[in-house]
Specification:
This protein is of the alpha/beta class. It has one domain: Rossmann fold, CATH 3.40.50.1820. It has helices spanning about 85-95, 115-130, 135, 150-160, 200-205, 210-215, 245-255, 285-295, 305-310, and strands at about 10-20, 20-30, 35, 55-60, 70-75, 100-105, 145-150, 185, 230-235, 260-265. Strands 1-2-3-4-6-5-7-8-9-10 form a ten-stranded mixed sheet, sandwiched between helices. The chain is globular, with a radius of gyration of 18 Å.
């Protein structure tokens, strides 16, 4: 079955009264999945009650999940918009087709919101899936994150800036660890420093004239440690939007710190490819990812595996 024929994720706005206030959230009627707010009440640091102020998580559960694996999906968009179709719903469908649960994250964006709000949203998503792992048929130790472009920066931030939970927090979700068990980074933004920074992502995330210490802190190639999760990286050498050396610098840091890592760089390919199903040269890359996931116990091995068959499945 080809799950990649989904139409764009049609979103509508629903107004829900809660405790005398008006809360707005997104729903996805096109495929029957509902986006659930990450916080029951206003999110920390919320600047309003519109849809853009409410981070959400949309669950996509496969018919069976033999490895009990889940992936939080962080779409890209330069920290200014979200590619919720080809870097969100389509990714969730691909994961489901291989027996993996997916949770598409709608996180808050700049220039209205700056760091650490985006990181807090991603951490909350990981904690939420971990808290409800048994409800989803997921192993608490099989929860990864997959980010694209600026979503790749957010994913790599969760993998380099995490905590084991806050046991004294009144909210039980906050007791859970925010560390992903693995990361998948597709043509990711990694650094916030010149000359390889993606200026739009930096400006939307950090604002004008950010503190140099903050720029360094969010340059994730500088934050890798031996505790950083195993990572798979995909990019293209002639990406004209996010320089490929973002990926290379992060991979080098992973290797230096003895973190299990795999990277695939293709010579040609534009930015924002998603699963690249329309490109005969690049459509093999999801098969390489599936092979890596299976080799680490996060997906079922594909019988008669080849890059082409795994990519198209």
């Amino acid at each position: 079955m080809n799950f990649l024929c989904l139409a764009g994720l049609a979103l509508s706005v629903v107004v829900i009264p809660m405790q005398g206030q008006t809360h707005v959230m997104d729903v996805a009627p096109a495929d029957g999945h509902t986006a659930v707010p990450l916080w029951a009440n206003a999110a920390p640091g919320a600047l309003g009650i519109a849809a853009e102020d409410i981070p959400t998580l949309t669950a996509y559960l496969p018919p069976s999940n033999p490895t009990h694996t889940a992936v939080v999906v962080a779409p890209g968009g330069g920290y200014h918009q979200l590619a919720l179709d080809h870097e969100g719903a389509q990714i969730a469908a691909w994961l489901n087709s291989h027996g993996i649960a997916a949770f598409v994250l709608k996180y808050r964006l700049g220039p209205k919101y700056h760091h650490p709000v985006e990181l807090e949203d991603a951490q909350r998503a990981l904690r939420t899936v971990r808290m409800h792992a048994s409800d989803y048929g997921v192993d608490k130790n099989h929860i990864g994150i997959w980010g694209f472009s600026a979503g790749g920066h957010l994913a790599s931030t969760t993998g380099t800036h995490f905590d084991s939970g806050q046991p004294d927090a009144p909210d039980a979700i906050e007791h859970e660890s925010s560390r992903p068990d693995f990361m998948v980074l597709s043509y990711p933004v990694i650094t916030m420093t010149k000359p390889y920074v993606h200026a739009g992502s930096e400006n939307n995330l950090l604002g004008d004239n950010p503190d140099p210490a903050l720029v360094s802190l969010l340059s994730n190639e500088k934050q890798v440690t031996p505790q950083t999760p195993p990572t798979f990286i995909f990019s293209t050498t002639d990406d004209a939007t996010v320089p490929v050396l973002n990926s290379v610098m992060f991979y080098e840091a992973l290797v230096t710190n003895h973190v299990p890592a795999e990277m695939h760089l293709f010579q040609h390919g534009s930015h924002g490819l998603g699963l690249a199903q329309g490109d005969p040269d690049l459509q093999v890359w999801p098969g390489l990812l599936l092979h890596w996931l299976a080799g680490n116990g996060w997906a079922q091995p594909v019988v008669g595996w080849s890059t082409g068959s795994a990519a198209q499945k």
